[in-house]
Amino acid sequence: MVEFIGYLAGLTAMISFLPQVIKTYRTKKANDLSIQMLLLTLSTNLLYVIYAIFKQLYPIIIMLIIVSCIVTFQIILTIKYTNR
Questions:
Q1: How far is CA 38 from CA 3, 35, 59, in A?
Q2: Range of 40's domain?
Q3: Which residue has the higher pLDDT, 56 or 13?
């Protein structure tokens, strides 16, 4: 049950970024996104991954790595489509 809650939390975090990534990709506009917020989010996720590795929290590790990839993709889109 506890692992299920961990996977559910990670899934929710993962899904929360997808609408913005999809919108940025479709509109090719990212002027209103804060690159600082995205970088801080990525940094936070990576620190949590390190923590989860030490604690052997595998559901958290898996989901945060996926979330970090999505946030990294959003950062790339934001850099590419800002000021277009």
A1: 27, 5, 23
A2: 2-81
A3: 56
Q: H or E segment at 17?
A: helix 2-27
The enclosing domain of 26 has a CATH number of: 1.20.1280.290
pLDDT tens digit string along 26-46? 999 998 889 999 999 999 999
3-class DSSP state of 69: helix
CA separation for the pair 73, 68 (Å, rounded): 9
pTM for this structure? 0.86
Count: domains in the chain = 1
Rounded to the nearest 10 degrees, the angle between the axes of helix 58-81 and helix 2-27 is: 10
Residue 55 has which token pair? 């604690």
